[in-house]
Amino acid sequence: MSATTSTTPTNRELDLQHLWHGNLQHRRLEANPPLEIVRGEGCCVWDSEGRSYIDGMAGLFCVNVGYGRRQIVEAAASQMAELAYYPLTQSHGPGARLAARLAELLPKGLNRAFFVNSGSEAVETALKMARQYGRMAHPGQNRYKIIARHRGYHGFTFGAMSATGQTLRKQAFEPLVPGFLHVPPPDHYRCGFCKHEPACTLGCADEVERVIRMEGPETVAAVIVEPTIGGGGIFPAPEGYLERLRAICDRYDVLLILDEVITGFGRTGKLFGFEHAGVRPDILTVAKGITSAYLPLAAAISTDRVFEAFRAEAEPDPKFAQVSTFGGHPVSCAAALANLEILVGERLWENSARVGAYLIEKLRSLDSPRIGEVRGRGLLVGMEMVADRETGEPLPEAEVVKLVRRIRDRGVLAGRNNDTVPGYCNVLILSPPLILRESQADTIVGAIRDSLKGS
Ligand SMILES: Cc1ncc(COP(=O)(O)O)c(C=O)c1O
What we know:
Elements: H1 3-7, H2 11-18, E1 37-41, E2 44-47, E3 52-55, H3 58-61, H4 70-82, H5 93-105, E4 110-116, H6 119-137, E5 145-149, H7 158-163, E6 180-183, H8 203-215, E7 220-225, E8 228-229, E9 235-236, H9 241-252, E10 255-259, E11 283-286, E12 298-303, H10 304-309, H11 330-345, H12 348-364, E13 371-377, E14 380-388, E15 393-394, H13 397-409, E16 412-413, E17 415-416, E18 427-430, H14 438-452
Parallel strand pairs: 3-16, 5-6, 5-7, 7-10, 10-11
Antiparallel strand pairs: 1-2, 2-3, 4-12, 8-9, 11-12, 13-14, 14-15, 14-18, 17-18
Helix pairs in contact: 4-11, 5-11, 8-9, 12-14, 13-14
């Protein structure tokens, strides 16, 4: 080895000395460093020591079409060679074509895309649109309140974090943005409304109406929900829930924002999560799967009705006062167009529905006293891990961390709902690429079964 190589620090050393990772206690990193991932192909990634893993999290709920798709790489490279950048203060083809493609894929009326860079920014944008719309559409009223749900996640920026219903993600940064209210999520396993009823009563949806009435509808701008709560612990909307929310929002002229940053683009077995319910949001937020994370891109997509309020002739002349330097980056938009061609061409939501149902069935057949419930929709799956099946007492977080590690040692990367609400960081999460095969689902289930032995 030459003198130069021997003194060259490794990536791991550089990481430990200079990188600041989110949600990780750096004191423990030296003993337990994060994996250095060097390559990806299909549903698998490889670390710097040559070990391969099934990526049971598709990165962070996002590599929907899988790794190594040349079509996306080539689309991005050729756009970069042609026009590396121009902001949407003017216009460019990839941006216009992507906005039109999204309108084609979405129900009639969801027609206007405002591009940004991340899910958090898409949520910020939607919240700002909703507040401004509320005031413009209801002159003389001050519609600024936003109703969200406990356990929901909407992002790390101040507005999105204020909408987030996870104390552990917020408390160090308080005070947050005023005007955010939280209601209980649909939590079938621990429901305070209908756990003892023969069937779901949708009491948690009705709670939204109660809050709107108590607060005064003339103060409420929007309700924001994920069709299936993702990072907070996988809580799919029960049957009739989104329809009930839609009806409540219509009754009080409150906007319904659906945050589909995770559930969009095939994750839950339909192209969009709201398709399970047949409702349409007023504003839709998307990110992650829009490019399958090959490049950063996100959007807040509004209906014509919302958009028209911003085109009205009024004094002062209304407009949406927000500019994003990188939002709608042409290279990201070109990658998104290629990604959508693959996703739609291969109808990947169908594989997500089929293999997701298979995965859930296999996980439900595991015999372990640690599994309280397996729930999910498509390839978005959660396992409620418990210390006691009778009482439903959550498995302590430290045990869930060890479980995730044992699964990783068996070649599968699983996730968990870390740092969400106190006492309930006990959900094991799976959200693999939508190209997952049944044989790979079997490998995931086998790794979980072996890791649970003796626990
Ligand atoms: C539902 C939801 N909304 C918003 C966000 C924030 O997205 P980002 O991490 O891209 O800012 C996430 C991230 O996981 C999310 O799951």
